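Q: I'm writing up a methods section and want to include an example of the input and output format. Could you take the sequence below and give the corresponding predicted structure tokens, formatted cleanly so I can copy it straight into the document?
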Amino acid sequence: MEAKTSPNRGTPNNSPRASSLTQFRMIVISVTCATLLSVVNNIIMPNDRLSSSGNRSHDIPQIYPKTSKKLTKDQHINTFWWPSPEEYGGILGKIHHFQNPSDCSAPSTKFFVWRSRSDNENDTRGLTAWAHAASSHMLHALTDADQPEAGHRILINDDKLFPMAKGCEHGPETRECYFEPLTNCKLSDVDDYETADPKSSNIKILSKTDEEYDRNVRTLYTSDSIWFRKVKDMYSWTGLGFNSQHSTIHMTAASLAYYFRVKPWLRKEIDERLRRNIPLDLNPQRTIGVPIRRSDKCRRHAIEGSAPGEMECPPLEEYLKKVKEFLAFDPRIENVIVTSEDKSACDEFLEVLRKELPSLRVIQNIGDVQQGTGSGSKLEAYTEGSSNAEVVASALTSLHMHMRARYFVLTSKSTWTSTIAVMARVYGFASEVIVFDIGPNKNTFAHLARRGCA
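A: Here is the clean output for your methods example:
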């Protein structure tokens, strides 16, 4: 019979032989790990080689600098975080690469100029309505209106007044008061229709969004409409194949993330507000987001200067009912983030919420201006003593706060709340985002917010 060794018998751990065996094993493990790392590095980066200085050089041109940093989103639970092209790469990085060419003045560099409306001072679009227009114009430019074989265009906006930037103290009264430029190219690089020869073949001004045009035209201008051309195949420019092979939501979210890259001063402002509002121990997996959109979104509102109402706003009891349903579904829920541009509706909901669900920790956007409208043309007129910059900082803080939630009660009829859901699904801090849509819309973006797919 085979002899069995008792676990309490054999070579003592403190004997010389045991010590030698331990050292030998450690050497073998170290050598093996070093060998494996060397093999893996050569597999992953076969085109890298060490230069005489010991640094890696590359045969293949690199769009972005290589970095060993990991995504640090989870370390920013109560501080500013937003996906950056350098950190995230992917579609967002691809957009950044195409939008920032090495030579903007080259005759081969084509442009799509996003024009302001003729009556732009009274343009009532809010933050996300502008962002959605930019996203659609971006896809038009990147695919050259579904003809990527003709090359792509650089989307660039004009330098006319951006209604929400009136009185900007941090830069021009344009989109760039708040956000990073869409491109490194300048308006001086495009063909100016006001000074060019009217018969020039380098310029085309669209009379309507779906007008066809010669793809050889160097500078294309948008029409005067607030609408945009719908691109049929948004992935064709990437080299990844066609729409049927990929998710619409990732392309949409990446283009919105690119648009919403804020300037350093605004980043600092949002960061300070997040530190004030978000508890360090907040667990996004156990958090509900309730972005209430009412005021001028509701039909029959009486807010002067705002866009006409678009929906029958759901009663606040409906929001509470869905919060309770989430709690029944997941008893581990601890927090609820409540925000709204409508102060009276927000206060009323918070009162009922605290009364009926006292165990939930309520998180608010403290210091929110709550201007009482989502329209952007007269923000300074709605809240006494507040500037446009404070309104924009408040609104974007709310968006960033909701990125830290998992469950949502919202109305997809609003592009604001739909954008929150879409961005939370793709770039948020929680996984498995679930949405209750109590004011549904029927368009593609509403489907993305509601279900994560069209």
